[in-house]
Records
---
Amino acid sequence: MHENDATQTPGGPAPSPLSLAESFPSSQRIYREVVHGECTLRVPERRIHLTDGTALDVYDSSGPEPEDGAPAGVPPQPRREWIERRSPGEGGNVTQMHYARRGVVTEEMAFVATREGCSGEFVREEVAAGRAVLPANRRHPETEPMIIGRNFLVKINANIGNSAVRSSIDEEVDKVRWATRWGADTVMDLSTGNDIHATREAVLRHCSVPVGTVPMYQALEKVNGVIEELDIETFLETLREQAEQGVDYFTIHAGVLLRHVPLTSHRLTGIVSRGGSIMAKWCLAHHRENFLYTHFERICELMKEYDVAFSLGDGLRPGCIADANDEAQFAELETLGELTRIAWKHDVQVMIEGPGHVPMDRIKENVDKEVECCGGAPFYPLGPLTTDIAPGYDHITSAIGAAMIGWYGTSMLCYVTPKEHLGLPDAQDVKQGVIAYKIAAHAANIARGNTKARERDDALSKARFEFRWEDQFHLSLDPPTARAYHDQTLPAPAAKQAQFCSMCGPHFCSMKITEDVRRFAREQGLEDGQALAIGMQAKSEEFRAGGKALYGSDREEEQAAALAAAESEELGTG
Amino acid sequence: MHENDATQTPGGPAPSPLSLAESFPSSQRIYREVVHGECTLRVPERRIHLTDGTALDVYDSSGPEPEDGAPAGVPPQPRREWIERRSPGEGGNVTQMHYARRGVVTEEMAFVATREGCSGEFVREEVAAGRAVLPANRRHPETEPMIIGRNFLVKINANIGNSAVRSSIDEEVDKVRWATRWGADTVMDLSTGNDIHATREAVLRHCSVPVGTVPMYQALEKVNGVIEELDIETFLETLREQAEQGVDYFTIHAGVLLRHVPLTSHRLTGIVSRGGSIMAKWCLAHHRENFLYTHFERICELMKEYDVAFSLGDGLRPGCIADANDEAQFAELETLGELTRIAWKHDVQVMIEGPGHVPMDRIKENVDKEVECCGGAPFYPLGPLTTDIAPGYDHITSAIGAAMIGWYGTSMLCYVTPKEHLGLPDAQDVKQGVIAYKIAAHAANIARGNTKARERDDALSKARFEFRWEDQFHLSLDPPTARAYHDQTLPAPAAKQAQFCSMCGPHFCSMKITEDVRRFAREQGLEDGQALAIGMQAKSEEFRAGGKALYGSDREEEQAAALAAAESEELGTG
């Protein structure tokens, strides 16, 4: 077996992403129109049309399609008129938290309320309390608003961005489209290489989900990579440049304090956050306290002019299982709690980044400590990876931890791709990471008892049970892949109507047998278990009287024909 | 983006598996020699040689290589002489449980004790108590013994087998070799198509891990697929045929009782186990109790002649999230507990199969109930899948559930491949399923606090931190894939010595910075946090005195050269 066969992704950049129609056949982007004050909000969903005449509407982060009305090349700006009409609060404060605390349900809040199936007032309360973040820079009118908080659907973030060894603006824009198509709720542009400003501009103008960045990377470019030369002025200048472009949240490693660094001395893998290591080095070089910490209120003043949310970085997160939940990590978390309270004093929105690498038995402690230290601010972990031994599969090692931490109360999950620890992800890696994390987030939503999320599982399982193969594909997270896998063994069109699959063949299909028993029960007007038991006895007599076949002869012949067609096509394609 | 690019596996059967040396470069199968009574046991491990001169020995299920001494085409039979020397107990009983209860530590027990790092006496106690199963048909001398139980490493099973729409004996044998190479601890041959006897024979003779089957499939072939014509005589004849071939454990759906079937009437997906639906239909057709239940003691009598273990099938497992943990499922589980006690009366080994599809919040209940109902017999779940919406990715939806249920106390995890619900897995799907489940089992072992399992995480993380790229690949679950991913961005050989990767590039590597701080601390003889803090102050002065570079100039130049080499090769390959 050649190893090229064993890898999941082809080398090099991928061609442009598929259209919505190609990615999700039988789906359509619809808009739910909601009147809010003087505005009519157009809240998107994706409608999946099923072959039984019904449809299922699902949450959709993919952004407007060209045919939705905007001229080609001009991205729609659903938020522009809301932003223009709104008057800033005290000190030019335009944050959603500021409005929420003044009792205002903004258009953004009404919009996300429709997406989440709750009231605008509930959204307002959660934002006012700091339990939810609604990332919405006033300079990013392209955003379709979304909300991150423990009482809402679990969200996922996809990281994109180039590095010094690989760079292309078009490729990054394609990754954004690709990530949001498959379900990313926010995107972080982590570029560190060339064209950092232009890449971010292109990303923002083509992105209908909130965009996050780590401004430290660009600040460091401004001092030619010399960490010791960083200072608060350069940093604030960078923040303003990025806030003006429309970045919705900033990862800022203000919790890495001088006194924390020695706590990492016994670690197996030291400091693995790029921002964390930069600030640790700065602190060492100057033997002074982290300037992001000492000047934190100046940063808050800037954030509230634009409504950029904090994503307080966990610069001391563990980089391996051995370092999980250690003193350094939790000492920083306490500092992040302190900073959260300062930001909230300015009505600036805050979420808290989390680990990293954590064994399953120590995941819950992270959520509990975060809630305790940070007053319920949304938690935004990376993974966590539950073992270190599977580079190449860290989307899986971490989807396990992500699903669990999502269930335990996390608000947004930062994805990990198969390339983690090995290389820069390409578009296909981005897709693999997004799908793994949609699975984790959805599993968490179900475990939390979200009935709207469960509708999709039930619709798909019903389609599966009724042998509606097309519907099973269309309801899945990745219809083209589900179809391609089915085609590999049974490519004949007739197989898509068949009441069996290649796993069991036609004689061993448990669902076929169950379905038949059920139909009989329905025909007899039997619905509950007791009545079915009586029906079973009747059917037992019918079986014995009528010979061997469970199905009527027409049905048997039809299935045999489907099998024969499938088999002959199979032989034909060799 | 073309969807063929998006699928993880190529169509059609894969070529023959790689050799051990190609799959695991820098590894070697070694044997730990252990004297036990008159025998010298040769217990395998895989030794991973590292570039720092050390090595790590890991559990190895891959079986002997041809160069290990056996003539080509003649599989080694490590158990032959043990079996021949041993005298059966009462009534011809040769089960490991029988010997264990008589106080005998068999060669098999001593063998697995070495593999697990415990005493033979501990193994004996666990087997005697029914808390562990050591599957070891006396007609399968090719097996390298392994143990399944909650106080041992979590194991994984890979299902292989053809169906009516696809069939090739060679392909199935390749799947077995491929599955055990990547880490399957047992293999189940679920063939239902042609050549069912010959396929099983080929599998058994080429398989050094225990093999399980579902004998009902062949029994049904013997009555030409007419479920109503099944009876205990045909079934016992089939059991004997397969036991004579050497099958180590049988899935038998003896817990599907007539009274349970109506409990499935409100289910969304009815009965999804093939064996379960067959027995449900049989019960309906005859309106009689399941003959596997009523004749269970006759089955036990046969099993103990060979030491075939029961894997009591959960014929009423849920087939979707909506049906999880329902009355039908748990009613059957109680019956399985009753059957367990009967089997133990005969000293026949038992494990219990489990679901299926279960949301995360309801997984633990399954383990608790199983322990309660079945007296601690090893639990052997399929997955469970934690959501239904991702056909094409059910190795991931289920690895989440598998890791959790493993942590909660499960003994063996039955894998799920990406083709689940869509088609018959090929060799590449088998590999994807095995790797996902090795991740789940390993994460569970770590969460349970197994220090031997953790050694590998720590060794890999240490290699990562020290930029020993080759060691990082070699310690991983899938070295060729890890290497291929690294090569995609940085194919130059120099990049394998580089102190950075393509994710961050050379200027943003947190590990590089941390490593440097550490080296400094070591040079100064500083080890604890307090001393490091003092050292940091000194270093801070050194930084300010000595200019900007954290690294000495030689180091900087070396890294720049590696980057330049990587970049030029990158351009060269376009």
Note: Chain A touches chain B through 162 residues (CB under 8 Å).
---
Amino acid sequence: MSKKVRIGMVGAGWMGRAHVSSYMSAYSIYGEKIGEPVFSILMDVNEESAKSSAEKFGFKKWTTDYNDVINSDDVDIVDIVTPNAFHYEIAKAALLKGKSVYSEKPLSLSGKQSQELAKIAKEKNVFNYVGFNMVMMPATAYMKHLVESGKLGQIMRFDGRYDQDMLLDPSIPLAWRHIKKQAGSGALGDLGSHLLSISQYIMGDIESVNAISKIYIPKRPIKAGSTKMGNVETEDYIAFTASYKNGATGQLSSSRVATGRKNYLGVEIQGTLGTATFNLERLNEVNVYFHKDKSIDRGFRNVLLGPDHGDYGMFQPASGIELSYNDQKVIEVAHVLDAFTNGTDYVCNFKFGAKIDTCVATILKSAETKQWEKVEEF
Amino acid sequence: MSKKVRIGMVGAGWMGRAHVSSYMSAYSIYGEKIGEPVFSILMDVNEESAKSSAEKFGFKKWTTDYNDVINSDDVDIVDIVTPNAFHYEIAKAALLKGKSVYSEKPLSLSGKQSQELAKIAKEKNVFNYVGFNMVMMPATAYMKHLVESGKLGQIMRFDGRYDQDMLLDPSIPLAWRHIKKQAGSGALGDLGSHLLSISQYIMGDIESVNAISKIYIPKRPIKAGSTKMGNVETEDYIAFTASYKNGATGQLSSSRVATGRKNYLGVEIQGTLGTATFNLERLNEVNVYFHKDKSIDRGFRNVLLGPDHGDYGMFQPASGIELSYNDQKVIEVAHVLDAFTNGTDYVCNFKFGAKIDTCVATILKSAETKQWEKVEEF
Amino acid sequence: MSKKVRIGMVGAGWMGRAHVSSYMSAYSIYGEKIGEPVFSILMDVNEESAKSSAEKFGFKKWTTDYNDVINSDDVDIVDIVTPNAFHYEIAKAALLKGKSVYSEKPLSLSGKQSQELAKIAKEKNVFNYVGFNMVMMPATAYMKHLVESGKLGQIMRFDGRYDQDMLLDPSIPLAWRHIKKQAGSGALGDLGSHLLSISQYIMGDIESVNAISKIYIPKRPIKAGSTKMGNVETEDYIAFTASYKNGATGQLSSSRVATGRKNYLGVEIQGTLGTATFNLERLNEVNVYFHKDKSIDRGFRNVLLGPDHGDYGMFQPASGIELSYNDQKVIEVAHVLDAFTNGTDYVCNFKFGAKIDTCVATILKSAETKQWEKVEEF
Amino acid sequence: MSKKVRIGMVGAGWMGRAHVSSYMSAYSIYGEKIGEPVFSILMDVNEESAKSSAEKFGFKKWTTDYNDVINSDDVDIVDIVTPNAFHYEIAKAALLKGKSVYSEKPLSLSGKQSQELAKIAKEKNVFNYVGFNMVMMPATAYMKHLVESGKLGQIMRFDGRYDQDMLLDPSIPLAWRHIKKQAGSGALGDLGSHLLSISQYIMGDIESVNAISKIYIPKRPIKAGSTKMGNVETEDYIAFTASYKNGATGQLSSSRVATGRKNYLGVEIQGTLGTATFNLERLNEVNVYFHKDKSIDRGFRNVLLGPDHGDYGMFQPASGIELSYNDQKVIEVAHVLDAFTNGTDYVCNFKFGAKIDTCVATILKSAETKQWEKVEEF
């Protein structure tokens, strides 16, 4: 019989809904061995929203105070899906109570605070997971394999970008994403951090960075249709050069006004024996080149992902049958449950998340100082 | 409050599981307006399987006799997910009882029997849906739009193929797919029928066909590892030329031993004003060319599907965020529920299914007579 | 010192100019060992054109009677670049005089006449070359290698098309291409014959064919801007199924009204061990899949052609440095010179050309009889 | 009748041969109006080479002293195709004599010297052309058009790279490319300068740069097969961020050890209204996205270049008929002749070349100082 994993969720918005749906899919697909998610209590600051969402999502109880979640005996994992600015406070409180925590990314809006959470999590020795869903993609698993197995040789370069054009239209009004206090940063935190998560997993630590950032649309209507304009405080675009501890170099960037790019997280990893490329708009494919192939037959291979790659085989029995973007979250949640239930290893712990948040902070700093900045070690 | 749609399912295998999961996802994604699926009774010939699957899938009751499903007052829709050879008998019995039926494809193993089912369904005036899931893809919706809107002009050609290489290995043992009585046909019925469903939806009726078929691996082990060999009776490959009622011509084919092709349902539609192409291995993209574009800027457009295309917007808010192959089934099931609950139109009725089964029968006949054969009208 | 190869050219139009330029490039690139082309005499029925072109192209003499070319002691090779309808008469006369002949394709407008030329050429034992330039492409050389080496295993399928949209516009006036007596056929002879030449080289003989053809634009202005319309007599589109002597099957087609396709000679060769694809719009690439690759790293390889492939290395020292469409003709002419001078083997002799013309005739016949037709052996 | 353009060539190596062949092709393709190239005198330091090449290339005279070329009354244009390190000295001497000069790139190994040449050329008011052949590509012409016409809106980003893997193998011995005195720089000067030439033409001036460089293979055999190793002094890889005067930003790079990349000069230009991409391995294509397209039909257009784009129409009558890498040089030489003969405008004058050489110097400096460096204006 399946062990129960009792979820206390903080936040009842779009991301909460996605988590609930992913718990259910994960349990259905991976089966009993990962533990059965049980929806114990849902918190939202808005009483109406807490109540109706609890019913819709299948939670037994609801509250408007996150302490009720943290203090509940019915909760094994505190699942934090609030707006970004609240992650730190809630996660810290939960950890200090000795609760296991599964938080959406980012852990906090500052490198320091995220490092603090990682430290507490380690001291408290509880399960701690931060939701960088792209780390769990079959494509990422395959790229990690290519690097770790040595098939690509010594890695010389890791180039990447995460480009979208969703904010290209200047009539799109101001929102939390544009305000520094609420978002911490713009394209970097929102999109670029995903790129950093893949980089961190595959390449390890970045030693220093050198960045430049731009706000291309400096003013936006304060609300839809308004002629009153407010200031955009966070970057539309950021580019940085990274120097990796392993000796490699990278050019990375992110834009939210990248015309024509819809979900273009593109990566190219060049090693002395091979090169791999990937683009999230085609998330079921990785291209790879092996220098050792006979030259007459040599070229980039368009590998359609399949059961050989990460958790793909949990979803489909053969390659070429596409997984979705949302399936990444299902894989993540399955690993959350499995790790909690069975003690299996997991990549995206708070230390991992703190490393990314520290990179984000350092990159932002470099964009201001216009100099190479070291990424703090911890 | 949501209307209940009570499901009686016949068959407890892999496809049954997929239907159940799709009902739940459809309800979660499309919401209450499409009706709430309720899992009333599950039938399987194997008692143990019926019992355990009923529990796992969430059915209230189980049985080993499909008549219990058909006769149940708790059942609104009889959902048939048995092996292909049994679809006809069960669907017919259900229709004659006046039950609504949702059957996996094909309706039967013969054109005649499928036509008979279509006729009965019409007489009984009940809901009747056959599960050609690719008809509901956003990609198909977009190609249909391109043709219907006149953007492609008068259609001259519809070329397509559905290629996989899953049966390339001669050591894969005999299975129902290889036996004519159980499968009706090989690559044509299994894969090519999906291509025909897209063709039927977008292009309308085929007038006549001219086919050639091959069995490349004529003998296979009777079971895994056995040295005893049995005959493969169904085609590994079939190719046919189609003459459409609308004046267009097509070269179509299907292979289950198409080395390197994993899920390659490829289509090219050429009209006097434009051309569209698609490949299921990249199911979130359609390429389209418009002759009217200024020549200096003219070329095939790689359209990443998005909320403009079919039901994509039910899943994601912006283009470039990939849907999965499985999401097609979710869309289908959502339309099944919506059509049943609200009387909305649907494409894949039994007449539609019977047209495809009639084409299949005619193509097989032509492969034997080695002549052009007319597709029977009904 | 280089041996001289004295050219007598019949025809002073666009193709003549291309041949002259290719002779010069070939000699410059391949060097003295292939023989030095010397331009002895040029014939054109139009005196003015003969005279001015002779000067422009560098011919020593000119004439308006092709017999002067055939009878000239200064001519080693009679190079025929007239309109198609005259190839047969001139080639026959030259062969009967014992002259070596290099004729543009097709050899004649009928299978029978081309067979007759092949027979005479053999009896006279002279050099005889027909200009199917795509046979000499690096891409074709590589595909031939893949098949001959056994890397693709036993070939099951050869699919291909040659599509252009140059005649899509109905206001383009009637020309020789549209008139049966002058052109023999339409899309098939003009474009499809190139596809057949690649097929013949790689796959060997076709046993029988089954075709359908269409004239989509049945009337065109008799001249540009005219309102007077004339009948188009040759097919805009033809599709045929081919049954190869080696047991493989093919779906092939050609269209001159294929919207969006500019120079789309596409090929797919499926064997039991691998599959290769090619498209002339990207003539410096071949995609190939090897079933024997480890499944985790397996996918179509995008091979950028290079010095390993055919005569590429004569042009560039490394792969990825694109050759042009015109370079194919240079390679052909280099082989013409080399074969004549040094007696090296060549593929595109008159027998090869007659086989293609026989296929063309058989395909046209099948499009009329609407039946499978055998390709005559000779 | 055609005006003669008398060429005095300095250098008899591979590049000299390429120039001669391009002069001849250019004259043959573009015709008399651009002037007829006449090969007056060829200089090479090696007497034997000068003599034999003069004969082979068709020069009337030869010499081992470049002053003979500069001082010759039979020379209109001094064409410099020596090793890079000698360009400056010869070009300067020629300019000071009032000769027109066509020099291969780079003008010199330092920004300062190139600026000096540009200044002298201006003072002397003679024809001065530097051979950045990629500026004349149809693809470049089209990208320039997209930017200049405003079709892409305000340009936000220009990203690019020029990657090859020709020097990936550590057993390739030391050559001039690896020695600072002879080459000036490594991947940057050799490859990256071409990227800079496209950038300069399309984007205008770079204001400041920030670079990082690497030597991945620090020692190589002093000659093929030797076990004695020598130091590689020039970078294998360089990456830089560029800040453009027009407000745009760019991440650019170049590697000569980029595994799998054969001739990958890739560019992406993002503007507020559209985005264009290009890759030299497919030099007959540009991809372009227009934000103004209706969203349902919107996507990157794969434009096969044709007569609408630059000088393509001089080579082929329709799109999809590929030009070669070498054709770029033919276009360049045609413009050299045309500009000299008819006084038509040209892009790649010495000032243009000096700007690129100044960028190269500044980028190298930044890689040493590890700071943003301003590109000197002149």
Note: The longest strand of chain C covers residues 155-163.
---
Amino acid sequence: MAAAAAPPPPPSAAPITLPDSNPSGQPLFTRIRLATAEDVPHIHKLIHQMAVFERLTDLFHATPADLSATLFPPNPPPPFTSFTVFLLELSSIPFLATANPHFPPLLNSVLLDLPIDDPERESFRSRANDVNIIGNDVIVGGFVLFFPNYSTFLAKPGFYIEDIFVRECYRRKGLGKMLLTAVAAQAAKMGYGRVEWVVLDWNVNAITFYEQMGAQILPEWRICRLSGEVLQAYAHVNL
Amino acid sequence: MAAAAAPPPPPSAAPITLPDSNPSGQPLFTRIRLATAEDVPHIHKLIHQMAVFERLTDLFHATPADLSATLFPPNPPPPFTSFTVFLLELSSIPFLATANPHFPPLLNSVLLDLPIDDPERESFRSRANDVNIIGNDVIVGGFVLFFPNYSTFLAKPGFYIEDIFVRECYRRKGLGKMLLTAVAAQAAKMGYGRVEWVVLDWNVNAITFYEQMGAQILPEWRICRLSGEVLQAYAHVNL
């Protein structure tokens, strides 16, 4: 469980601006698409970076093989009915529009004041099937993992966001906002009642960001958790 | 979202004791089974009672029709892969063992010191298919609603308990413990990593109960929520 996020970003919903029309900045083109099993190595690294950010590496036990088996099973359920990952990809050249019956990738861009120095560029090159079309300039910048939840008070499904994460060198550019907006828009289009997630109470930047996105922060609720050996012992309870 | 619970109950895992072997008490026989669409009227009333208990009736908007459509769709997914309801039934005479390919009902009993005066007995008569077999003495006493969640740190699914509720006159008898144990046991048997839920910080009885069940209470996390018109507005965001 975790929800890190970029600090409050400026809005980035402006239409794509070509480089020569704005000599003071350069565009970073963005794509949000459904992740696939090929993306697991990147997803694994992103989750680990999030654990480091949250100071929770002692709780990090995921392996790429386990992620692959649980997030991308051989007979996957319909999209959005179970665990779902949106991947954020970045490129200095525009993405081509591609079709996807379940979720057409969301294309956008942000304007950069300064070029970004990405020290992990090589290890985060996208594994998307279509990178050969647009050159190998596509870099994975973040992800959001979510799944359905349910409100009995509304009698409606919703989405629960387990993780939202943008790599450090790409923060403060509106990219976390794009990822959260993508999930909220999908929920709204499906007629869902709520999108929920949790935040660490010391993560003031994230809380401010979420409030700017329109979220309520609920102060009264506390998470309860059964896990590890305590949970396993319940397998042998004689009911 | 809600999680009310019975206050700390005594353990009730003792084998069934026949009435004449314990003249000081009388047994209340219990059954936990998967709910069906026929149970929706009872589930609706239970959720409303929980909203009253939690002082959150302003957030209660569920109708029986909405519950039926979302919890028991025409082509339901496999059990435990989506929203799942366990119903707690009570009877003064033993339940017959019945088969269920997905979840054999859990039969147990508790010993009562005093007879229970259930003022809503008539409106909570069970709608189970087999009540004719055991007479119409079966009363719905509570429920638990849960669904899969996912831990990226464990790379494993778990269960999230949205609601756990025992009707007031049946509290303090170990019945909430039975419901929570049923979910934890199911998670453990499926190899899941965690069972999680939330509790209101003023509900000291419930917190004590959960701690006695082995749960950790996580003090640092806060729930964030997008809902209502704020969420719906995201349907029109141009991404």
Note: Chain B has one domain: 26-236.
